[in-house]
Amino acid sequence: MLLPAAGSGERLGRGPKAWLEVGGRTLLDWALAAFAWADERLVALPAGYSLDHPGVRFLPGGRTRQESVYTLLLEARGEVVLVHDVARPFLAPAVAQRVLQAAHRHGAAAPVVLVPDTLIQDVDGFYGPPAPREAYRLVQTPQGFGRELLLEAHRKARQEGLEATDDAQLVLALGHPVALVEGDRRAFKITYPEDLLLAEGLARVWQE
Ligand code: C5P
Q: Which parts of the sequence are marked as the site Transition state stabilizer (predicted)?
């Protein structure tokens, strides 16, 4: 499992998210616990930090999420790798298993959820054309890939200057399809301060 956890947490304004506490433990600890079963756990940390945790390798992250994942990927050994954002502490084991199975079967897989709201384009501050929300999905992590495939996708992206907010986009850019599996709305990404209220509430009822 590759965990890019080197973000600065700018939008949240509470320092690096890896150290943010929810339900009395850091987001890093939540993620490491969710993948306690994984053969390999590689974590990208913000520059200047290092940690010691049994069975976990820590590496300095890059300037962007993509660079952090690439750094981890170069050190990974598994045939299939899962890439998970540290900002999503509430990962149900069933989601990780669905992704893993689909990644083994199709080479690449990502969990998605439906779009609950009306979806439109913002045209200079005015209500633009609506998008058919039933045709769209919100993409979560963990995403799963054959390691060689993901490495090829990252190398091509680096050569071509392609930057993406997740790994599935890079694999898609290679022309390789990415299977979708059912995600979980509880695996939302903690991004804005109000997300912390929801996270604290979920932490109280969460069972691993
Ligand atoms: O900024 P964003 O929310 O898209 O970050 C997604 C994930 O990528 C987070 O887990 C964050 O810690 C990680 N990240 C990283 N290295 C960076 C920037 C973000 O590992 N330079």
A: 11, 17
